[in-house]
């Protein structure tokens, strides 16, 4: 078949997918000729520039069922978009069908039962806004613009995970449409294997259309530590921070960042965007004397540039960093789990951070343990509960001409720190499509075989197989 014939055949196939969807779909069908096509295919990471054949923007679960019926008939590559905030941009694919859940924004909070049901297009900022009306929350990530779907399906590291666990640990149930088009509600009691897989298994078992979370009393005001240290003291502060994490109570989730001073009004302008060390931690209870005492060790790691610790609304905490990761800029992230942070590892981190290509790039270490480690190691698909730390190397930049330099820095820093890893990577910080081959075992560890069995059981024809292989 000639190239022209192949192009004609492909175009006819794409048209057939769009036409069949339009015959029964209640949402919006967006093809290459649609005036909103470029906007609809864009995701948070401006590095991602994929061109799907058709985007099926679902209005509800029935639309998801219709989209999967079309997918089973025509067998395009399928990707599933929730919030579109994942670094690898797996919510969009080239030349395939995007099942777009971003318009599904329903939220119902039951304050008496302390539960919330939210559809898959909801972001953490939107969910927090509703739950905090009742002084309740479920643990999310650290950026309010992140979608609840991708973060939760990948595990869900966050500001208070040592107190309340991962996002996926707070799931009561999910509604999911499997490859056969069946709508299922799964929980620990109903189809427990499928429920096990959606808690940390990433993607590839179906289209999760809504999440039911347990809620906890927390907020509206919360206490936190945030201390900026001079960059020349980076190694000393990292060592002191490491030592503090070894005795930190479970009510505190410490983290440390090698980053840049925020360009914000409370901070003197001469410090803006200068390299610094940020020490942070959030107290998983009400502000007060207990919070102050628990956070004190994180505020006493050496002479600071500034101590910005205090209390603030939880919704403010969750959105504080969102502006520093704006839509459309370019991002690349890779991570390691670690059992310890040796002096040699610290020296290596500071060395690679000194080569950071932009002020927007950073290195973050988050502390696990506590409620994360109390969940049984085989209780969910999330595979690295016993790790003490997660190290994330995050490149951020604006100029496409810097792509090679920025990604190269992050990859090299990740390679240099691999000897200090205990094995494994966090699927939500797992690079781009070309990292898929190394991702397979690294993201799921000893759980990979069970996850594959569950995927095969619920998707025997491999409708989601290519989606499952992506970061």
Oligomer: single chain
Number of helices: 16
Q: Overall mean pLDDT score?
A: 94
What number of structural domains do the residues give? 3
According to DSSP, the number of beta strands is 19
- Percentage of residues assigned to helices: 25-40%
Task: Tell me the major beta sheet.
Answer: 8 strands, antiparallel
Shape: globular
Q: Label the CATH architecture of the largest domain.
A: 3-Layer(aba) Sandwich
SS-based class: alpha+beta
- The first-to-last residue Cα distance is 33 Å
Could you tell me the CATH topology label of the largest domain.
Vanillyl-alcohol Oxidase, Chain A, domain 3
Low-pLDDT residue spans = 1-9
Q: Hey, roughly how much beta strand do the residues contain?
A: 15-25%
Provide the gyration radius in Å: 22 Å
- CATH hierarchy, class of the largest domain: Alpha Beta
InterPro entries: FAD-bd_PCMH, FAD-bd_PCMH-like_sf, FAD-bd_PCMH_sub1, FAD-bd_PCMH_sub2, FAD-linked_Oxidoreductase, Oxid_FAD_bind_N, Oxy_OxRdtase_FAD_BS
Family: Belongs to the oxygen-dependent FAD-linked oxidoreductase family.
Domain FAD-binding PCMH-type: 47-218
Protein name: FAD-binding oxidoreductase
């Amino acid at each position: 078949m000639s190239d022209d014939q192949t192009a004609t055949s492909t175009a006819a196939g794409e048209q057939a997918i769009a036409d069949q969807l339009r015959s029964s779909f209640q949402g919006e069908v967006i093809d290459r000729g649609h005036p909103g096509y470029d906007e609809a295919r864009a995701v948070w990471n401006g590095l991602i520039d994929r061109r799907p054949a058709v985007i099926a923007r679902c209005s509800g679960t029935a639309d998801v069922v219709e989209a999967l019926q079309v997918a089973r008939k025509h067998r395009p590559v399928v990707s599933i978009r929730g919030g579109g905030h994942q670094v690898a941009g797996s919510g969009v694919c080239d030349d395939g069908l995007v099942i777009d859940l971003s318009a599904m924004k329903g939220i119902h909070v039951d304050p008496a039962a302390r539960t919330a049901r939210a559809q898959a297009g909801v972001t953490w900022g939107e969910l927090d806004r509703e739950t905090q009306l009742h002084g309740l929350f479920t643990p999310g990530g650290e950026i309010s613009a992140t979608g609840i779907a991708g973060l939760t399906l990948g595990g869900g590291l966050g500001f208070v995970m040592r107190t309340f666990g991962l996002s996926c640990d707070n799931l009561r149930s999910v509604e999911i449409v499997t490859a056969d088009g069946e709508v299922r509600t799964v929980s620990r009691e109903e189809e427990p294997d499928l429920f096990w897989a959606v808690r940390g298994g990433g993607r590839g078992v179906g289209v999760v259309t809504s999440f039911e979370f347990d809620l906890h009393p927390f907020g509206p005001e919360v206490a936190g530590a945030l201390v900026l240290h001079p960059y020349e003291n980076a190694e000393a502060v990292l060592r002191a921070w490491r030592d503090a994490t070894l005795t930190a109570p479970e009510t505190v989730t410490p983290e440390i960042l090698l980053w840049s001073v925020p360009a914000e009004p409370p901070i003197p302008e001469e410090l803006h965007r200068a390299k610094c060390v940020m020490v942070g931690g959030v107290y998983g209870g009400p502000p007060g004397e207990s919070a102050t005492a628990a956070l004190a060790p994180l505020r006493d790691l050496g002479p600071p540039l500034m101590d910005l610790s205090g209390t603030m609304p939880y919704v403010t905490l969750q959105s504080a960093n969102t502006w520093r990761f704006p839509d459309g800029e370019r991002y690349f992230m890779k991570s390691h789990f670690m059992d310890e942070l040796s002096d040699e590892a610290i020296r290596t981190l500071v060395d690679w951070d000194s080569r950071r290509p932009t002020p927007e790039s950073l290195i973050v270490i988050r502390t696990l343990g506590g409620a994360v480690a109390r969940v049984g190691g085989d209780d969910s698909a999330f595979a690295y509960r016993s790790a003490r730390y997660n190290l994330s190397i995050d490149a951020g930049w604006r100029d496409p001409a810097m792509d090679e330099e920025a990604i190269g820095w992050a990859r090299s820093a990740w390679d240099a720190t691999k000897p200090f890893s205990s094995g494994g990577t966090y699927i939500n910080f797992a690079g781009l499509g070309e990292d898929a081959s190394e991702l397979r075992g690294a993201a799921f560890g000893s759980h990979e075989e069970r996850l594959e069995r569950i995927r095969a059981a619920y998707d025997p024809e491999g409708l989601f197989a290519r989606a499952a292989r992506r970061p």
